[in-house]
Amino acid sequence: MSTVIPNTGNTPQKDTMTTNSNTTKPNKGGLEGIVAATTAMSKVDGTAGRLIYRGYNIHDLARTTSYEEILHLLWFGHLPDEQELADLRARLVAARTIPDTVMQSLRSLPAETDPMDALRTAVSTWGALKIKGKPTVDQAIALTANFPLFLAAFNRLRHGQEPLESQTELSHAANYLYLLTGQVPSNEHVRGLNSYLVLLADHGMNASTFTARIVASTESDIVSAVVAAIGALKGPLHGGAPSKVQDMLREIGTIENADSWLRNAITTGQKLMGFGHRVYKTTDPRAEELREMARVADPEGFKMSRHVEERALALLDELKPGRRLYTNVEYYSAALMNSVGLSGDLFTPTFAVSRVGGWTAHILEQVSNNRLIRPEAEYTGPENLPFTPLNERKK
């Protein structure tokens, strides 16, 4: 059955972008402070450090729910009962299959291909084969079910291994780890990855979600919108930073070297990876959850990560007072994903494995009450220049 999710928001989408002060033509880079749409999906409260999915605090969800429950919450508007959850899990399992054409495209990619590029290629190829018409929940389920398959298949191929068949009895998180390694994962690893998927599933009008909604607003298909979102997530200012946190910690090397390295980085204007967020003016609630998960999953690695965090915050307060920088979700994402055995270049694609749930939910919400997203730009170039014909122009 193909269905389009209803708009469960309480207010209609706005026709124009507005600011909190109700001005319609702000002059601020990056659209900061602009209200571009209404949504019932998630609320990011940057001042209080809160993240809410459809009314539920992220701390409660991260500690108690499965990723499949979060998908149901985002797509259908409420947490599932046992039968609803069983039905959704069955639909996800039934969709776990890679068409031969998609597998051929993955086999044709060079081993050095960035996994995000491989994921984008596989999703686009799959969409050309599978998707027609207006975005539906069935399409969202199929896309989300296949993200881990595409990524794991490419990862094995680039290491000279054959892709594996999904295990129907395994959860979304467990099946992904199995497809990567060929081993049924430990309960500890499954819990860690599942919580990560829950925490990253949605986050308001972030760059990739906004991109997906813009494409959907043109009445394009769901795969085109998701492929565009993948491109946005790939950027290091959005989802491409977790592996760079790992690189930074590796460069610091030891706890004893942390102060001198951090002081030099801060005084010379280097960016501390995993610190600061465009919205949060206090601790990122997702980082709080991931910190505790990393403490349990990798006690030795956690000591280094925690020490660098504490010293960085102290030095930032000393050297850059008033900046109010805190660790963000990417800082401890790196530690957690490393603890479950993922290589650094799989961190951002695994972010996509989670966020596709939010992307597709936002796409469905957009098309349920659609208006083309078409903001204005403030023109800063010259006007009224005299025109000169080509044969009269001189350097």
TrEMBL record:
It catalyses: oxaloacetate + acetyl-CoA + H2O = citrate + CoA + H(+). GO terms for cellular component: cytosol. Residues 1-26 have a biased composition (Polar residues). The active site is at residues 277, 330. Keywords: Transferase. InterPro entries: Citrate_synth-like_lrg_a-sub (IPR016142), Citrate_synth-like_sm_a-sub (IPR016143), Citrate_synthase (IPR002020), Citrate_synthase_AS (IPR019810), Citrate_synthase_bac-typ (IPR024176), Citrate_synthase_sf (IPR036969). One of its GO terms (biological process) is carbohydrate metabolic process. Residues 1-29 are annotated as: Disordered. Gene3D superfamilies: Citrate Synthase, domain 1 (1.10.580.10), Cytochrome P450-Terp, domain 2 (1.10.230.10). Pathway: Carbohydrate metabolism; tricarboxylic acid cycle. One of its GO terms (molecular function) is citrate synthase activity. PROSITE patterns: CITRATE_SYNTHASE (PS00480). It comes from the Bacteria. Belongs to the citrate synthase family. This is Citrate synthase. It comes from Reticulibacter mediterranei.
